[in-house]
Amino acid sequence: MKTDLIANQLVKYLEGRGIRHIFGLCGHTNIAVLAALSKSRKINFINTRHEQIAAHAADGYARATGRASVVLSHLSPGLTNAATGVANAALDSIPMVVIAGDVPSHYYGKHPHQEVNLHGDAQQYEIYRPFVKRAWRVDSPHLMPEIMEKAFTLAESGRPGPVLVDVPMDVFSKEIDVALWKRALANTKALHKPSLDEAVAMKIIDSLTGAKSPVLYVGGGILLADAAAQMRELAEHLSLPVAHTLMGKGALPDDHPLILGMTGFWGTQYINDKTRNADWILALGTRFSEADCSSWEDQYTFRIPPTRLIHIDIDPAEIGRNYPVEIGAVADLKEALRVLNRVARKLVPKGIKRDKLVAEMAANRAKFAAGNLKAQRSDQWPMRPERILADLRAVLPRDALICTDVGWNKNGVGQQFPIYTPGTIYTPGGYATMGFGSPAALGVKIARPDRVVVALIGDGGFGQNPAALATAHEQDIGVIWVVMNNRAFGTIAGLESAHFGTTFGTVFEKGGKPYSPDFAAVARAYGVDGVKIDTAAAFKPALEQAIQAGRPCVIDVNMKNEPVPTAGHWNIMDIYSPGKKVHHVATGN
């Protein structure tokens, strides 16, 4: 029997799975793995200064590759530091395997260094139970290969998501039979996915072709399933207008004639009216989240019933969760759409044309664009946010990869920024994590070094994880960070000002005057290019130069604290100001 240290064999196993990058941070419980990684010629360890940065970077990497990423963490403070990033991945259904060191197994019950044990010995890994698909603790060394194989399979199958493998540090240094790892690697690395029964597909197509005002409603599940092309084929054959959630943005290009746009609070009146008045909706890969559905109040975005709902999702728990379903199907969306397209061409070989509707939608898009034109061309300083987005879109290639954070850079992008290539925008949707965009862009650029990658973030979000710049400099990761700097937690400031008449605790001030660090100078201190924009006209050339240089670069641009315009609804407004129909307002800079 040939034996080797578990740490060494773990690295070989990860190499065998095709893992090429591991994101993490050292601790005394995981340095045996780091020592083994130092000898690997296939895996690059992405060293970060904070575990939240590691988790968000791994999240971005997984979104860009479509495969599970790997995070290496220390126990207790490492686990809790990473928890925000792992939970963000969970709520957006992003596959991730977190490998964490733990206290030595022979010290269970003795409360060793850094252990949290108020309610149980060696139980701190259970902190992750509410948001990972499963959390394992490896108490028997010989089970490590089997657990690792189960972890990757579970992370990537069904509705994807993160898992945790918690390893007592002494287990990493145990000898193990090498044959156990070879057995694990022999297992299939891709499971066949469930499709749609043809009889159900015929029922769905019959319902859609008999409808007077059908809508195709798509969520982030379309992009996770890599099914945008199949969805587009169905939409075009049946002339189905396509509305989307925030996470579904880009599934159909924003210059396609059948695109309606984003629904809900940051949707427009026209789009919300179309979904609310549909007689049939085919929903694909969406959980009908609160903001996308105007807090599920039927006078705004959806009225189900009387609208009749068809819902297809890989996760049965989402079907019927928020709205009653007439036809529900659990299936992989790519496989399901292949069947739907085949049946649609059989039942309606010539397709369906809705020329009047397409013309009406085009006129609405033109009207909306015209309404933003003045702000997009404004030389106002601080810059209008619409001008920042317009200049950014004008400069970027169609297939550039965008990581947003939260605030204007997420909500405004969802509403106003055209995405032309499916799967090129990455947003913290379910968890809406401030601080996501900056490190997530690292992982995206590592995964796609051939593409232009931009982190579009606010000063509040950028200020949370500036140490991502150290990793960018050390690894030569050519991300461009555009900091939309309104010297505030701007969206929250607008809400507080509108409803309570104050911006207390939401704006950044020193001596009663607006304050911000010079983020360009901060970038240069880390060894990264930094540009401080001082006029609206200077932004576009600076961005062009950064793209041409191909180096990590921070562009700090002052922005007016202006709320994203919306005719939508969110129930929090009624909580703040019952019966007054107050939204949010601009605040001073």
Low-confidence stretches: none
The biggest beta sheet, please?
6 strands, parallel
How are the strands of the biggest sheet laid out side by side?
3-2-4-5-7-6
DSSP helical segment count: 22
Gist?
The chain has 589 residues and is of the alpha/beta class.
Task: Please provide a written account of the structure.
By secondary structure, the protein is α/β, with parallel strands linked by helices. The protein is built from 22 helices and 22 strands. It has a six-stranded parallel beta sheet with strand order 3-2-4-5-7-6, sandwiched between helices. The chain has a six-stranded parallel beta sheet with strand order 11-10-9-12-13-14, sandwiched between helices. Helix 1 packs parallel to helix 7, helix 3 packs across helix 16 and helix 13 crosses helix 14 (385-395). The longest helix is centred in the middle third of the chain and has 23 residues, at 355-377. The radius of gyration is 25 Å and the shape is globular. The mean pLDDT is 96.
List keywords for this structure.
589 residues; alpha/beta; 6-stranded parallel beta sheet; 22 helices; 22 strands; 39% helix; globular
Question: How do the helices and strands line up, and which of them pair or pack?
Answer:
Layout: E1 3-5, H1 6-16, E2 21-24, H2 31-37, E3 44-47, H3 51-65, E4 69-73, H4 76-91, E5 96-102, E6 135-137, H5 144-156, E7 162-168, H6 169-172, E8 175-177, H7 178-185, H8 198-209, E9 215-218, H9 221-224, H10 228-238, E10 242-244, E11 259-262, H11 269-276, E12 280-284, E13 308-313, E14 327-330, H12 333-347, H13 355-377, H14 385-395, E15 401-404, H15 408-416, E16 425-426, H16 437-447, E17 453-458, H17 459-464, H18 468-475, E18 480-485, H19 490-500, E19 509-510, E20 513-514, H20 519-526, E21 529-533, H21 536-549, E22 553-558, H22 572-576
Parallel strand pairs: 2-3, 2-4, 4-5, 5-7, 6-7, 9-10, 9-12, 10-11, 12-13, 13-14, 15-16, 15-17, 17-18, 18-22, 21-22
Antiparallel strand pairs: 1-8, 19-20
Helix pairs in contact: 1-2, 1-7, 3-4, 3-16, 5-7, 8-12, 10-12, 13-14, 14-21
